[in-house]
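Input.
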Amino acid sequence: MAQIVSDSSWIKSSHSGGDGGQCVEWAPGFVQLADVVPVRDSKVPAGPVLMVSPEAFAGLAALARGTAP
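Output.
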């Protein structure tokens, strides 16, 4: 799946800093194509890609922001 999502499609949080350390990347443009959100480890971009539902990703983002119910 990593090859299906182009390298330019991946983004990471602006809060992750510039060192490329402890963060995940996601490909928002892929959601419109397949109704899933690809997520990967920024330290291993050629590694496995986790495909999650948009709802699950929204929950993960809320937990990361500290705004989850």
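The chain has a mean pLDDT of 81.
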